Amino acid sequence: MATHNDFGKKAENLAVEHLLRNGYRILSRNFRFQKAEIDIIAEKDDLIIIVEVKARSTDAFMLPQEAVKKSKIKLIVSAADHYLEEYNRDQEVRFDIITVLPDEQKNLVVEHIIHAFDAFDAN
């Protein structure tokens, strides 16, 4: 497996650990629908939380969350709709992004951006 794939998997694992520590229940990982993949589907406070994990080795060019473009959001929303239908879930949905970046000491820092898609119009 390529080094960037290893880093991405490590970032997803850190995101899951972060969510579990904060009272989330993990429902699914790497849920696929057509061309879309949802990294993590979780539940907390009767909400379904759709989580996109973005990791970068540096933020010199852009912040990790800036890599989530409108086209990616549309795919994730479509996959989330399919998940809700397939699993007969009738709950409110929230879309979050968890970023993973190294700090100056090369420690990986997890940031959880709640309601991350609210600023976007996915239509």
TrEMBL record:
Keyword Magnesium: no
Electron transport as UniProt keyword: no
GO molecular function, one term: endonuclease activity
Highest taxon, organism lineage: Bacteria
Protein's name according to its UniProt entry: UPF0102 protein QE404_003358
Entry-linked CDD domains: PoNe_Nuclease
Coiled coil, from the record: none
Keywords for this protein: Endonuclease, Hydrolase, Nuclease
TM helices/strands, residue ranges: none
Family, similarity comment: Belongs to the UPF0102 family.
